[in-house]
Recover the amino acids of this structure.
C-alpha cells in the first residue's frame, strides 16, 4: 500500500515538469514561426533598380510603375553618369556594383537637352531616349517618363522574364469583383484605387505599344539612299571679268549597298555674255557637258557632304560684227577642263534635297579672241562657280 502511494506521488511530481517542457516547446515553435513570417514580410525583393535625378515625383512614379514586377526602387543622391558613351556605361557599372543593383535609371542634361538613360547590369548595355521636358518633372510628366523607362526595361534582363519583349503572353485570368483581393498585396483595394490602376494600365499599354514601335523602327536597318537622282542647278561662273549666269541639269546613278559612290553627268547652258569693244560688238555663249565621280558622306541625319571630281567639255562661240570693217565676225571652239567641287546637301524630305554647290575648273587651253590683231575677249584659265542645286530621288 505504501509503495503504491509513493508511485502516485512520483507521477504527480512528474506532471508539472512535463507540462513545462510542452509549454516551452510550443512557445519556441510560435516564436520561430512569427520570426519567419516577419522576415518573409520585411525582406526586400531580390532585385533593385537605382534611380538618380528627375525629382521626387519621378521617383514615386517609378515605384508605382515597377511595383508589379517586385523591383525595389532605390533613390540615390549620387551624381548621375555623364551622358557620353562609353563613359556612361563605365560609371553606371560602377554604381550598380557599389549598390548591388540589377539596373540603373537616371536623367541627364547635355547642352540643355534632357534625356532618360537605362543601364542593364547583367548585359552591361545602356539605352537612352530623349525627353522634351527638363527635370524636376511634374506629376503627369513623371508618370509618362516612368512608363517610358518601364518600356525600355522590357527590352532588358531587369524585367521579369514573362514581362520582356517577345515573351509569350499567358491566358488572362477571370476578372474579380470590385474590392476583391489584389494579386500584389492580398488585401482588398478600394474602388477608386482599382479605377486608378486600371487607367494606369491602359496608359501603360498604349505608351508601351508606342515605345515598342519606336524601338522596332530604330532597330530597322537604315534605308539606303536613292539609286537614281535628278538635279537642277542655278550657278554663277567667273568666265571672264564678269559673272556668267548658268543653268545645269543632269542625273546621277549611285552604286553599292549604301549608295555612297556615284557616277553623274550634267549639261549646262546660259544666256551668254555681251562683248562690246571698239573693234567688235557681239555676244559670247557656251554649252558644257560634265561627267563626274561623286561620293556621299553623311554628317548627320539631314546633312550630307558630296565631293566630286571630273572633266568638262566646253563648246564656246562668239558672234558679232567687226565695227571698223563693218562685216560679220564669228568663231567657235571646243575646250576641256578638269573640275573639282563640293556640295553640302540638306535633306528637306527623304526624297528632296537642297544643296549649296561650289568648285573650280582648270581650263586645258587658254582662250583669247582677237579682231584685227587686238584682243577683244579672254576667258579665265581657272574659273570658279557657286550655285544652288535642287535634287530629287527617282528610284
Amino acid at each position: 500500500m505504501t509503495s503504491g502511494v509513493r508511485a502516485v506521488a512520483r507521477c504527480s511530481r512528474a506532471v508539472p515538469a512535463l507540462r513545462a517542457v510542452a509549454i516551452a516547446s510550443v512557445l519556441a515553435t510560435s516564436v520561430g514561426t512569427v520570426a519567419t513570417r516577419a522576415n518573409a514580410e520585411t525582406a526586400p525583393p531580390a532585385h533593385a533598380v537605382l534611380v538618380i535625378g528627375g525629382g521626387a515625383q519621378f521617383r514615386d512614379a517609378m515605384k508605382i510603375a515597377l511595383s508589379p514586377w517586385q523591383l525595389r526602387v532605390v533613390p540615390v543622391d549620387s551624381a548621375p553618369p555623364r551622358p557620353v558613351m562609353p563613359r556612361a556605361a563605365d560609371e553606371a557599372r560602377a554604381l550598380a556594383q557599389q549598390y548591388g543593383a540589377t539596373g540603373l535609371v537616371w536623367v541627364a542634361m547635355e547642352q540643355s537637352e534632357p534625356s532618360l538613360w537605362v543601364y542593364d547590369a547583367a548585359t552591361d548595355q545602356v539605352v537612352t531616349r530623349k525627353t522634351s521636358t527638363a527635370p524636376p518633372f511634374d506629376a503627369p510628366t513623371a508618370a509618362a517618363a516612368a512608363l517610358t523607362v518601364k518600356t525600355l526595361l522590357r527590352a532588358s534582363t531587369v524585367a521579369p522574364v514573362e514581362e520582356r519583349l517577345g515573351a509569350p503572353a499567358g491566358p488572362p485570368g477571370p476578372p474579380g469583383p470590385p474590392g476583391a483581393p489584389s494579386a500584389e498585396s492580398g488585401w482588398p483595394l478600394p474602388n477608386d484605387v482599382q479605377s486608378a490602376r486600371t487607367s494606369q494600365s491602359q496608359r501603360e499599354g498604349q505608351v508601351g505599344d508606342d515605345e515598342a514601335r519606336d524601338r522596332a523602327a530604330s532597330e530597322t536597318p537604315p534605308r539606303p539612299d536613292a539609286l537614281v537622282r535628278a538635279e537642277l542647278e542655278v550657278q554663277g561662273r567667273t568666265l571672264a571679268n564678269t559673272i556668267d549666269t548658268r543653268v545645269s541639269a543632269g542625273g546621277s546613278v549611285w552604286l553599292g549597298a549604301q549608295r555612297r559612290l556615284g557616277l553623274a553627268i550634267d549639261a549646262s547652258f546660259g544666256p551668254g555674255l555681251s562683248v562690246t569693244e571698239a573693234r567688235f560688238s557681239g555676244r559670247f555663249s557656251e554649252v558644257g557637258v560634265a561627267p563626274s565621280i561623286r561620293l556621299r558622306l553623311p554628317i548627320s541625319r539631314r546633312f550630307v557632304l558630296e565631293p566630286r571630281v571630273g572633266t568638262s567639255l566646253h563648246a564656246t562661240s562668239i558672234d558679232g560684227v567687226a565695227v571698223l570693217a563693218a562685216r560679220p565676225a564669228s568663231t567657235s571652239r571646243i575646250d576641256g577642263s578638269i573640275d573639282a567641287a563640293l556640295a553640302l546637301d540638306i535633306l528637306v524630305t527623304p526624297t528632296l534635297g537642297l544643296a549649296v554647290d561650289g568648285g573650280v575648273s582648270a581650263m586645258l587651253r587658254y582662250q583669247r579672241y582677237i579682231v584685227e590683231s587686238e584682243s577683244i575677249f579672254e576667258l579665265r584659265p581657272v574659273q570658279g562657280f557657286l550655285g544652288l542645286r535642287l535634287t530629287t530621288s527617282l528610284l
In short: Residues 2-42 form the longest helix (41 residues). Residues 265 and 291 are 4 Å apart (CA to CA).
